[in-house]
Structures are given as C-alpha cells and as structure tokens.
C-alpha cells in the first residue's frame, strides 16, 4: 500500500465519520518497502493540490522518515527553473519532486496496522493490502 493512499483513507466505523481524529489513519508496527519507479512529474503536479499536507507530514513523522517542511511545496517547486517550457517531456524534476515521489509513490506499507485516532480500531495490512472489512458489531 503506497503512502499516498493513506492521504485518502479514513476510519470506516460509523461513529468515527464526523470526527477529525479519524483521519489520517496512523501506521503502527509497519514494515516498509521501497519499490522504485520512474518519476511521474505530471502526476505529482496534479496530485499535489489534493494532498492534505498535515496528514502527509504526520504519517512521515510516525514512520520515522525525514521531516517535511511545514508548508506544502507548490507545483513550481517540482520543476527546475531553467527547464520550464511548454513541453513537459523536457522538464527536469527538482530534489523536492524526487523526495516527494520517493515518499508518496515508492514507499509502501508491506505489513502492519493502520490505527484510527478516534476509536483505536486497527486495520491489518498484509502483503501490502489493508483489510477494511469490519466485524458486524461495528458496522
């Protein structure tokens, strides 16, 4: 499960729906895996405004990854100034873009748990897949 995914998940328990503590889910006892891929600069530019930056920072800190800046980078921060042109194929990614790509798209939770900050319910992650099926009494 890519770390990017955690920016879009919240607790599935009905009583947690209105609580801000149910987002983001907190990774615990996690085994991380790096799966290297080519950098996709257009994707990073488009996903950046959709990220909840505070949640990205929280997840990164909880996993012991390098600390992120307090404010989210802008789309312009992802491309070297000398490479700005109308042709996306010639754009050169900055170190910020490479780091963000590494964090969001290459770093995966292979095994562990995702814990709700509101109700403390644990969702198991096995082989990179989170189990969000709830027992009957929690539905």
From TrEMBL:
GO terms for molecular function: protein heterodimerization activity. GO terms for biological process: rRNA (guanine-N7)-methylation; tRNA methylation. Residues 66-94 are annotated as: Disordered. Belongs to the TRM112 family. This is Trm112p-domain-containing protein. It comes from Aaosphaeria arxii CBS 175.79.
């Amino acid at each position: 499960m890519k770390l990017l995914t955690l920016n879009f998940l919240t607790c599935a328990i009905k009583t947690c729906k209105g609580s801000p503590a149910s987002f983001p889910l907190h990774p615990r006892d996690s085994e991380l895996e790096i799966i290297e891929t080519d950098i996709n600069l257009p994707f990073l530019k488009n996903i950046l405004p959709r990220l909840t930056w505070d949640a990205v920072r929280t997840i990164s800190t909880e996993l012991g990854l390098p600390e992120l800046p307090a404010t989210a980078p802008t789309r312009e921060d992802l491309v070297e100034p000398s490479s700005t042109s109308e042709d996306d194929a010639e754009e050169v990614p900055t170190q910020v873009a490479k780091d963000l790509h590494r964090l969001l798209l290459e770093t995966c939770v292979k095994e562990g748990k995702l814990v709700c900050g509101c109700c403390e319910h644990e969702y198991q992650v096995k082989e990179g897949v989170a189990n969000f099926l709830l027992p009957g009494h929690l539905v």
